[in-house]
Each structure stands twice: as C-alpha cells, then as structure tokens.
Design brief:
The complex is a heterodimer of chains A (562) and B (361).
Chain A lengths: L2 E7 L3 H12 L4 E5 L15 E2 L8 H11 L6 H21 L13 E2 L9 E2 L5 H15 L4 E5 L1 E8 L5 E8 L5 E11 L20 H8 L4 E2 L4 E7 L10 H4 L3 E3 L7 H4 L9 H13 L9 E4 L5 H7 L1 H11 L8 E10 L2 E3 L11 E3 L4 E2 L12 H22 L8 H15 L8 H15 L6 H18 L13 H25 L17 H4 L1 E8 L2 E8 L13
Parallel strand pairs in A: 1-2, 1-9, 2-6, 9-16, 15-17
Antiparallel strand pairs in A: 3-5, 4-5, 7-8, 8-9, 10-15, 10-18, 11-14, 12-13, 13-14, 18-19
Chain B lengths: L1 E9 L9 E9 L5 H12 L18 E4 L2 E4 L5 H12 L7 E4 L6 E3 L2 E2 L1 H11 L19 H11 L6 H5 L1 H5 L6 H11 L7 H10 L12 H5 L6 H15 L8 H15 L4 H9 L11 H19 L21 H14 L6 H4 L5
Parallel strand pairs in B: 1-5
Antiparallel strand pairs in B: 1-2, 3-4, 3-5, 6-7
Helix pairs in contact in B: 3-7, 4-7, 7-10, 8-10, 11-12, 11-14, 12-13
Classes of the chains: A alpha/beta (562), B alpha+beta (361).
C-alpha cells in the first residue's frame, strides 16, 4: 500500500503550495492530480494576487476591503491572517522565480482591481495564475525526492477509519486503470471548485467539485454553499473569462445605448466595484432591455493604450481574437455575467482543518471563510497560497504526532465494485451521462445565477433530485482500463449532483440577499437573522442544515456602497 | 449550425489491434472548435473516445492534437477553418472530413492521448527547470530591469501543450533533441537576471549533442505555438548568448558553424555553400582550394550525411558544392544583403512584441 505522511489531492496552486510546505518540514508527501498538475484550473486566474506590500498600504486596509467585499459574511480572524501574511507570500514567490511585473525602478509593480481601496494587485501580464503555478511546479520537480507526484491519478473516495479519521484515499491510475488504496496520516483536499455544475461557466471541464462531494460523503461540514460568484465579464455562451484586470487598466462597461451604466450603480468605484455589484448591474441592464440582442453588454478596452494592452492584457487579446473574433484593441467586446467561483466549500479553520480528523482543505474547495458572500478579485490566488501553506504545515505537524494510518482494506473493494457496477450498466438502457450533466448545468444557471427566488430554486432542486436518481443508472460506453474517461465522467457526475443539491438547499434556506446571493423575493440584507453561515452535512441522503457564527474582530457590519 | 465530419485516428491499446480511422458526424455552430466537435462525438456517439481537455480556452494546454496534419490545440482550432483547410488540402470541393490525429513525435497511449511524460517532461527536467539564484534571497524583492521580466514572460507564457514538440522536424530526426518547449523553458532561466548559473546553463546546452545546435531553423515550432512563445526565437537567443556573449566553443561545432554562416554572408552577401562546411570545421581557412587538415577531416566525416542527402533527393544542386561556381545574385542584391548585415550588426536589438509594442506606436 503506497503510504505517505501527507497526501495532497489536487495539484493547482493550493495543492502544490501545501505539498511544498509539508515537504519543507521533512515529512514524506504524495501529491495526486487527475490531470497533469500544470493543467490545473489555477492557470485561469489572470488578473493577479493581492497584498499590502507597498509602503503606503496596510494589511488593515486590505482586510477591510475584503470584509466589505464579503458583505460582512467573511470571518475576520481568517481574513486578518490572510492579509497579514500576504506580503511575505508574494516575496517568497518572487524569490522562487515568478516573473512579476516591475515598475520603472525594477521593483514589484501593481495594478488596480475591483473592490480595493488601493492598487495592490501584483501580476504577471494577465497570466498570473499560470506563471505562479508553473513556478511552483518547477519546485515540485526540484524536490522530487521528497514529493512523489501521482499525475493523472483520479481520487474516487476518501478512506475513513473506524475512529472517523481520514487516513488515505482510493485512487485510480488513469493511465492503466489500476485502483489502489493509499494510506496517509493527513489528507489535504485541494481539488478546486465546482463551476461545471453551471453552464456556461468560466471554469474548466475538470472543475467538478470532487473534493467537496468526497468530504461531504465522508462526514465533513460544508459552509456558504449558496455563495456563488458570477463574474461580470465573461463571453456569452462559451463563458470564457475576460479578466477584471481589463477594468483595472481602465476599461469601461457600456450598455447598448453607449452609456457607462455603472454610474448609476456604483458612482464612486464605477467598474471597479465588487464583483457581485457589477454583475447585478450588468444583468439588470440586460434584463431591462438596455443590453445587446444576444443578452450582453460591452466592455470597451480600447480606452487603454495599445502598448499597455499588449504588455498587460496579452491573453485577453488572444481570447478576443480566437474565441470572439474581436480585436479588443480596436473595438469593444460583448460580455455578460457568468459563473466563475464558489465562495463556499468544505468548512475549515485557519489551519485548514475540516470537521473530519486528519482531513484538510485549502483553496477553492475550502471555505475558511475569507470570501464570505463575495470574493474580491485577486484574493483567490492569495487564499490558495496562504491556506495551502498553512494546511501543509499543520498536516505535517499532525503526521509527526500520530501513529501509522490503517485504512480499512474493504474500502478498496467497495470502490472497485462501484466501478464494476458503473461499467456493467446496460448500454442504451437509460440516459447517457452527458445528457444528465447537461440538464443539471442548464437548470442551475437558469435558477441559481445572479438573481434567485424561491420558485426557481425549488424547481432546480427538484430537477437535481430527479437527476440523482437518473445518474444512478446512467450508462457509459467505455469498459476498458486505459484512459477510461467515460467512467471518470460518471463518477464526476455523482460528485457534481451532490454539489448542486447542497447549493440549492443552502440558497433556498438563506431568505435574504447578501453578497452573491440575491433573492428577488428577499431583496434586503438582514443582519438580525442572517449574519451567520449556513452549514450542511450529510444526513442519510439529504443535507442537514446547521449554522456557524461569523467571526467579527474589528469591523462591525455597515451598509455597503461603492 | 452546420454539419461536419471529423475523421479521428483511434487506437485502443487493449484491443490488440493497430490504429484505425473512424468518422464522426457532428452538428455544431461554425464558430465552435474542433474540441467542441470531439466532445459532442464523445457525449452523443461514443463515450470511449479519449482526448485530454480541460479549459476549452487555450490556457491549460491539454488538447494538443494534429488537425489536417498540423499541430494545434483542438480548442483553439475553429471548425469552419479546419473544414476550409481540409477542402483546400484535398482540393476536391467541399465535404472532406476534418482529420484529427494524436500529436507527433510522441508515443500514443489511446486515441488522441499521447505520452507526454517520455517525449516532453523528461526533456523539461533535463534543463534544470528551476531558478538557481546566488546565495540567500534579499529581504525584499530582487530588483531587476523591468524589460527583463517582460522578456522572459514570453517563455513563461508557454503552457506545455506539446504542439511545438509535435511539429518539430529536428525531433523527428533526433528523438533525443531537447526540443523547442524545453529549450524555451531553459531560456526562461538563462534570461532571468535572478539566476546565477547562466554560463553553466549555456555551456551545458551548447555542449549537449542534442542541445541548442540541434535546431534547424525550420520555424515549425513558431507556427505551431498557440501562445506566441516562439520557441525557435528563444533557442536563437540561447545561441546568441552562448556564442556572442559567453564565447562558448562547443564540441558540436555549433558556434563555428554559425560563425561560418555569418562570416560568409558578411563577406559575400550570399551563402556560398561550397565554403560553408570547411569554414565551419576550420574557421579562417586560407582559401577555397586550400582547406586545413581539420577542415578536411570534418569534410570527410560529413560525407555519409551528404551521400544520404543526395540519395534521398534532399541535396539537389550538387554543383553548389563545387568551389567557385556559386551563382552571383542579380542587380547588386549581394551588396544590399551586406548592407542589411552591417545594419543588423550595428543595431543588435531583440524584436520582442511584449517590450517594443506593435508597429506605429
């Protein structure tokens, strides 16, 4: 049985940072990813990473912006930690080799970003996530003796022992189809978000909420699952992301009449208000008939000097050219709000610990909660790195303190039977996996998007429940062992439906509007009743609702205007 | 919506049979991609069709394939463009299938999934792909020229998709060639002012028989790269640094060969190939018909390659190799070339779009 002190599942920024932090502390580490690590979705983070590193800036200012951005649902102790530790993390990355943009003096330069009172976003053109992730992967290669990489290994389920502690996971080697039980003293989930339960989404096809579903099934509490960010500027239909960096560089949002409509919604911050505010504004323009025919508004980047566009927004030039047929240096590009990020996830403390012993979570899969009701742009990379590192540190400490893990062997045969059962489903007997997935994602976008109400959420929940039944018999074509992506798709569908159900249940339960959750039937924020987190845990086949308090340290909830 | 047929080269490793072709009929909007077509085929027609993919937006680098023989990302290749290309290529009007194959220069695992580990990642690890700074890091950031970061950001833009490796002609001839992607990665460190091992890296890459001098300037990688990394440009930067800045003389004769090229162009304004080999092996020869010993040895050693070239028809104008018969260019073109050479020598600038910006700015 392959055994590691710390097993990290997922190899985007959070996972790689966790693995490196654990390895630095001298424990043995395995890092698992269902794709090659550099394919991870952290790649898609374009705009940058926030830190109060400039002399005129302060961590308190960064923290306040984050608290306000979260619509006061973020836990302020965790936000403090993230903002205090941000500058050191940026310098650490710079020392490892990240090619951060420099100012004329050759020092780190910043750009402006949404919801921030200062320009404190550090960046590499508009490939910041990719640039950081490739540098971390360089470090993984450098430390290959301490860190075993399991690339293209799919995690099917977590291993929980008789005491309820997480002691490993069951993995399928995608390349040869073999399934094995891995033992570990601590398991860190860094599996990213669940954007694929919506369509369209900016998220990659791999973002299927695997970690959230596995943790939920293993008994861990989920939190803030109703808080789903719609990014203001995505391409219609395809859902591709146009970075907030474009607005940070000065781009304008225009409706079909050519009006800079943010004047009416956020007269001070305009296009750089927080994302929930800008998304609601854009969606309102579209729904009230001031958008373009295909249900979009325009992002005008031509106001940014051309040289600066090529230097700082090169990826957006390519996305515009290749996927929208638009030269963004010459004409506005049509965009709309689209699914982008989940603020919620597996509930953790500031060391990454979940409610299941030995199980950690970091990055988008986790909910610390530093983003609360709405995440600020350029805070997600920071979240992955700070809490990835903290998880790695705490997990390595745990690994030193406890005895050898003994995952029950039966778990392996359980998972093998599950696979055989899926492969054995009679072809043509029921629905195809892809059909079920498609229906789920369309209904989620329709009813769990920028604006929600009871009727819509209930409709979506009913559909999701029916789809769960249908998924149990949905058939696949491939019965082979090597690269059976069809099989993985069926397992991912199960994961996604758990995610979708939890999102619907939490959204239905929170009868107020806060951050990204806007209920047209409860349009106001209601601090008296709802200044608290909604938590969910598996109770049989239904999520059971609970609450967790919001930690408030320095900043009392106030009205939120931009 | 339009109908398309994609013809996929498939391989099922567990079947015991070789690769085979399969056509899939799909119906999609013209602006959608070859990846969208593959995904529709997989979703609706055959779930066993294997292709790596994730972001759909040319960011993750998963879906490298060959479409109509060209190495591309499937997600970035528009269906209608691929259809037009297929029709042009076949020259038989409309209705030709869009041909999709796994990437070249790599073993195939299943269908469109290749073994990038053996063909690519081992090469990346070969170039010591991590920063090697001198001593302890500073308290704050390293202070470096802003242009230097922009310069290496071009190679940082590489998403390791393998399209350039697939398209590389040198890799086809020498599977051990470190290759365009890994060498672009090497430049990312060589060009990084924070790295302290510049000379060692260049020395290593110059001496390796499969290193920077293995590239034949075919531009295939520049055409194939979906991210504008221009791997060949990065290789040429490595060469210039190795030869011009560090003056590294290598066992592959790379530096001398390059010097021979430029020297002949400088002197004659045209490439007199009869001089090229001997000049490469023994720089500073006394004259055309009086090669030095070292040059004779080098020339003799090159004979098998020359004979292979003649036999396969690659070397067609044998007469060019006879000293003194190299044709003169008409209308004073040679003087113009010499002028261009002098200008380039005086203005040694890198043309990097990310630093200079576009024309007219």
């Amino acid at each position: 049985m392959p055994t590691h002190d710390v097993l990290v599942i997922g190899a985007g920024l959070a996972g790689q940072r966790a693995a490196l932090a654990a390895a630095e502390r001298g424990v043995s580490v395995g890092i698992v990813s269902k794709v090659h690590p550099v394919r991870s979705h952290s790649n898609a983070a374009q705009g940058g990473i926030n830190a109060a590193l400039n002399p005129g800036d302060s961590w308190e200012s960064h923290a306040f912006d984050t608290v306000k951005g979260s619509d006061y649902l973020g836990d302020q102790d965790a936000i403090e930690i993230m903002c205090r530790e941000a500058p050191e993390e940026i310098l650490h990355l710079e020392h490892l080799g990240v090619t951060f943009h420099r100012n004329e003096e050759g020092r780190l330069g910043t750009r402006a970003f949404g919801g921030a009172s200062q320009a404190r976003t550090y960046y590499v053109a508009d490939i910041t996530g990719q640039a950081i992730m490739h540098v971390l992967y360089e470090q993984l290669m450098k430390y290959s003796e301490q860190i075993a990489r399991y690339e293209e290994f799919f995690t099917i389920g977590l291993a929980i022992d008789g005491d309820g502690a997480c002691v490993g996971a069951v993995l399928r080697d995608i390349r040869d189809g073999s399934t094995e039980l891995f033992a570990a003293k601590a398991v860190i989930l860094a599996t990213g978000g669940n954007g694929q339960i919506w369509r369209p989404t900016t998220n990659a096809l791999i973002c299927t909420g695997d970690g959230i579903a596995m943790a939920y099934r293993a008994g861990a509490e989920l939190m803030d699952m109703e808080m789903v960010q719609y990014h203001p500027t995505t391409l219609a239909r395809k859902g591709f992301l146009i970075t907030e960096g474009a607005r940070g560089e000065g781009a304008h949002l225009l409706n079909a009449r050519g009006e800079r409509f943010m004047e009416r919604y956020a007269p001070n911050k305009m296009e750089l208000a927080s994302r929930d505010v800008v998304s609601r504004a854009a969606q309102t323009e579209i729904e009230e008939g001031r958008g373009f025919q295909e249900g979009t508004v325009a992002l005008d980047i031509t106001v940014v000097p051309k040289k600066r566009i090529h230097e700082a927004l090169r990826e957006i030039v390519l996305v515009g050219r290749d996927f929208a047929g638009v030269d963004i240096t010459r004409e506005p590009i049509h965009i709309k709000p689209g699914n982008h990020y989940m603020m919620g996830g597996v509930k953790t403390d500031v060391r990454g610990r979940t409610s299941v012993e030995g199980l950690y979570a970091a990055g988008e899969v986790a909910c610390v909660s530093v983003h609360g009701g709405n995440r600020l742009g350029a805070n997600s990379l920071l979240d992955t790195l700070i809490f990835g590192r903290r998880s790695g540190e705490d997990a390595s400490q745990r690994a030193r303190e406890i005895d050898r893990p003994r995952p029950p062997r039966a778990l392996l045969s359980d998972q093998q039977s599950r696979i055989e059962q899926i492969i054995g489903r009679e072809k043509g007997s029921a629905r195809r996996v892809a059909e079920v997935r498609h229906e789920m994602s369309v209904v989620m976008d329709r009813h769990l998007g920028v604006f929600r109400d009871r009727e819509g959420i209930e409709t979506a929940l009913e559909v999701v429940k029916r789809l769960k039944e249908e998924a149990a018999s949905a058939y696949i074509d491939d019965s082979g062992a090597v690269f059976n992506q069809d099989l993985l798709g069926a397992i991912e569908l199960d994961f996604m439906l758990d995610n979708a159900e939890c999102t619907c249940v939490a959204a239905l339960h929170r009868t107020e509007s806060r951050g990204a959750q806007f209920r047209t039937d409860f349009p106001d924020r209601n601090d008296d009743e709802w200044l608290k987190h909604v938590t969910l845990s598996a109770n049989g086949d239904e999520p059971e609702i609970g609450y967790a308090p919001v930690t408030i340290t320095n900043w009392e909830p106030a009205e939120r205007t931009y | 919506m339009a109908d398309y047929t994609i013809k996929v080269r498939r391989y099922k490793p567990e079947s015991g049979k070789g690769p085979f072709w399969q056509d899939f009929d799909v119906e999609l909007e013209e602006s959608l991609s070859v990846l969208d077509a593959l995904l529709q085929a997989r979703s609706n027609l055959d779930g066993s069709l294997a292709v790596r993919c994730s972001c759909r937006a040319a960011i993750c680098g998963s879906c490298g394939v060959r479409v109509n023989g060209e190495s591309v990302l499937a997600c970035k290749t528009k269906l209608q463009e691929a259809q037009d290309h297929a029709d042009r290529r076949e020259g038989a009007g409309a209705g030709n299938p869009i041909v999709v194959e796994p990437m070249g220069n790599m073993p195939v695992i299943k269908d469109l999934v290749t073994d990038m580990e053996s063909a690519h990642w081992t090469k990346v690890r070969r170039v010591t792909p991590w920063l090697l700074p001198a001593g302890e890091p500073p308290e704050r950031e390293y202070v470096v020229p802003p242009e230097s970061m922009l310069d290496i950001t071009q190679s940082m833009a590489c998403i390791q998709c393998g399209a350039c490796v697939s398209a590389c002609l040198s890799m086809e001839a020498d599977p051990d060639f470190i290759g365009p992607a890994a060498l672009a990665k090497a430049y990312r460190f060589v060009g990084d002012p924070r790295d302290a091992e510049t000379r060692e890296r260049l020395h290593d890459l110059a001496q390796d028989p499969h290193g920077i001098y293995d590239c034949t300037h075919c531009f295939g990688c520049i055409d194939a790269c979906p991210k504008g990394v221009a791997p060949m440009d990065q290789i040429m930067r490595l060469r210039r640094l190795a030869t011009h800045d560090e003056e590294i003389t290598d066992q592959n004769n790379g530096r001398n060969h390059e010097a021979a090229f430029t020297k002949i162009i400088e002197r004659k304004g045209t490439l007199d190939e009869s001089l090229l080999l001997q000049e490469s092996y023994a720089p500073g020869v006394k004259g055309k018909l009086m090669p030095t010993r070292a040059a004779i040895k080098g020339l003799v050693q090159s004979l098998p390659t020359a004979i292979r070239g003649i036999r396969t028809g690659k070397m067609r104008s044998l007469s060019k190799l006879i000293p003194g018969v190299h044709p003169k260019l008409p209308d004073g073109a040679q003087e113009e070339v010499r002028e261009i050479y002098r200008h380039a020598e005086e203005h040694r600038t890198e043309i990097n779009l990310y630093i200079q910006g576009e024309e007219g700015e």
